[in-house]
Design goal:
Elements (H helix, E strand, L loop, with lengths): L4 H5 L12 H10 L11 E5 L7 H7 L4 E6 L2 H14 L4 E5 L12 E6 L8 H14 E12 L1 H4 L3 H9 L7 H18 L3 H12 L2 H9 L8 H10 L2 E6 L17 H19 L3 E8 L17 E3 L16 E4 L5 E4 L2 H13 L4 E2 H14 L8 H13 L4 E3 L17 H8 L5 E2 L5 E2 L3 H9 L6 H14 L6 H17 L6
Parallel strand pairs: 1-2, 1-4, 2-3, 4-5
Antiparallel strand pairs: 5-7, 6-7, 8-11, 8-12, 9-10, 13-14
Helix pairs in contact: 8-9, 8-10, 13-14, 16-17, 17-18, 18-19
């Protein structure tokens, strides 16, 4: 097969995926007692990388890494290649081709990423994907494979069946998507099942490519965790842990005398039970070669070797005296309840430091400082704190990484944005990716401003340029108003790590 028509016609939104960042994956691996390779100088392979919206920002962040993307849709692979040429970096390339037919000289990789591929390809390509991991992972390398899980998909299957039956398979993807939207309205009037109705409401506003590729595409084959683990075993691979957010973490009891393999078996059974109990729909599995050391369920004790970052806000005044539950919200709109006072102080300290990360000992020190500054009299109980941090890390309220580093710049006299961000801002079909591998959704004026930040204009000049730009867009505003807005935007860019230090 030369290309994939459905992905040519309705390209997948190709965005940075925070959970695939190798420094995050390495941190998750450490929580599981597994020592993964240094991401900053790693060889990284992404299978089904679309136009490279995830891979290119990783290559940009780590100039000493070597990144290869493989993509079967010719349109997407060519878009990515063109973007890389414009960006002018040489440590990343996107190869148009089938992951089931990779050239023999591709070499060995420390990280292999396959997001949104495994469940959406024919069985032969699923086998080929696992085979690529087996053949191309370095001895301590890690693969990330996401897949749909039977436990959560069985209740949704009637919706997929109805959408396939009631739409014309021979229509081009965009026209079929429009037809599917009309079918969703019909189904909403016909069906009472609350799970299906909730999904219909979600699909009506979801990205067209999501609806198409989950509900209309030829393949969406969910698998149980147990079956997936068996597939790994038959390819000489082993499960290492989960890179997705968890609201429950497996803790094994009575493990005395068990071999690491025996413990891993018990752990996998417990993971399967969790899927059923929580109707899990999607997993992001971390995988290693079968001859790599055996990983274990995550341990809170391993947190002390990591660094952390988060960007959380609360509308309420933070109570650092009492273990009263307070809700924090991240920019994606996910909420995280936090009760323990030291953990609330940690969220405050980390959100202040964002996008920089704090290493565990520095975080503990910052917690004590915040508590003292706000006059909180209770001492920090480190064991309780570590447990609260462990829960929040598992839920992705706080993200772990392996090195603190300091990344944030400030607007300064001649504001200058990263070349990648400026190119993304002026390229249709690309989203601006932030330092922490999230996406910044900017309006046309903000994109224009970001594109202008090449370090050659003073802040005053930028204000005047933006006033003229807005006028061209038909928006007349006073210089004072434009200046205030420009200043806010530039601090937002700084907070997202888009400005050069
Ligand atoms: C659902 S999209 C996911 C894209 C991207 N990984 C992401 O998560 O945003 C699946 C991608 O895999 C690509 N793909 C499907 N089969 C493939 C194959 N056999 N070889 C390489 N790429 C393939 C598709 O063209 C598409 O871009």
């Amino acid at each position: 097969m030369d290309t994939l028509a459905s992905y040519d016609e309705l390209p997948y939104d190709s965005l940075p995926l925070p959970e695939t960042q190798p420094d995050f994956l390495a941190a998750v691996a450490r929580l599981h007692g597994f020592d993964a390779p240094d991401p900053t100088r790693a060889r990284i392979l992404e299978l089904g990388c679309a136009q490279g919206g995830n891979l290119i920002p990783l290559a940009w962040r780590w100039p000493q890494s070597e990144c290869v993307g493989v993509e079967l849709s010719r349109v997407q692979a060519e878009r990515g290649t063109q973007f890389i040429q414009q960006l002018g970096i040489s440590n990343v390339r996107i190869q148009h081709g089938d992951l089931a037919d990779l050239p023999g000289d591709l070499g060995i990789f420390d990280y292999i990423i396959a997001h949104g591929v495994y469940s959406w390809v024919p069985p032969s390509v699923q086998q080929a994907l696992l085979d690529v991991c087996h053949r191309h992972l370095s001895p301590h390398g890690m693969a990330y494979i996401s897949f749909n899980v039977t436990a959560g998909w069985v209740p949704l299957q009637p919706l997929r069946n109805a959408l396939i039956e009631r739409t014309a398979t021979d229509l081009p993807a965009p026209a079929r998507y429009q037809q599917a939207l009309r079918v969703l309205n019909e189904l909403e009037a016909e069906w009472n099942d609350p799970v299906l109705r909730k999904e219909i409401a979600f699909l009506k506003t979801a990205a067209p490519s999501y609806l198409f590729h989950e509900y209309l595409a030829d393949f969406n084959t969910p698998v149980s965790f147990g079956e997936f683990a068996m597939q790994l075993e038959s390819h000489d691979l082993r499960y290492l842990g989960e890179a997705g957010p968890r609201h429950a973490v497996v803790e094994l009891e009575d493990t005395w005398g068990l071999t690491p393999e025996g413990m891993a078996g018990r752990w996998q059974d417990a993971e399967s039970a969790l899927d059923e109990a929580h109707a899990i729909r999607f997993r992001r599995a971390l995988i290693a070669r079968a001859d790599a050391p055996c990983a274990q369920p995550p341990q809170a004790g391993n947190l002390s070797h990591l660094a952390f970052y988060t960007d959380l806000q609360s509308d309420d005044e933070i109570d650092l005296e009492n273990a009263s539950e307070q809700r924090f919200i991240n920019p994606a709109g996910n909420t995280f309840p936090v009760a323990q006072p030291a953990m609330k102080a940690a969220v405050m300290a980390l959100s202040m430091a964002y996008p920089n990360a704090l290493a565990y000992p520095d975080l503990l020190m910052a917690v004590r400082q915040v508590m003292a500054e706000f006059g909180a009299s209770n001492p920090v109980d480190e064991a309780l704190f570590r447990n609260a941090l462990f829960q929040l890390v598992a839920a992705h309220g706080v993200m772990p990484c392996i090195r603190a580093g300091s990344a944030a710049g400030s607007p300064g006299e001649y504001p200058c944005a990263q070349t990648l961000a400026r190119l993304q801002a002026r390229s249709p079909g690309w989203m601006v990716s932030c330092l922490r591998h999230t996406t910044l959704d900017l309006d046309a004026a903000a994109c224009k401003l970001l594109g202008l930040l090449d370090g050659s204009h003073t802040v005053d000049e930028l204000d005047a340029l933006m006033q003229a730009t807005l006028a061209e867009m038909g928006v007349e505003q006073s210089l004072e108003h434009v200046s205030e807005r420009t200043n806010q935007q530039m601090w937002l860019f700084a907070r997202q790590g888009l400005l050069v230090k």
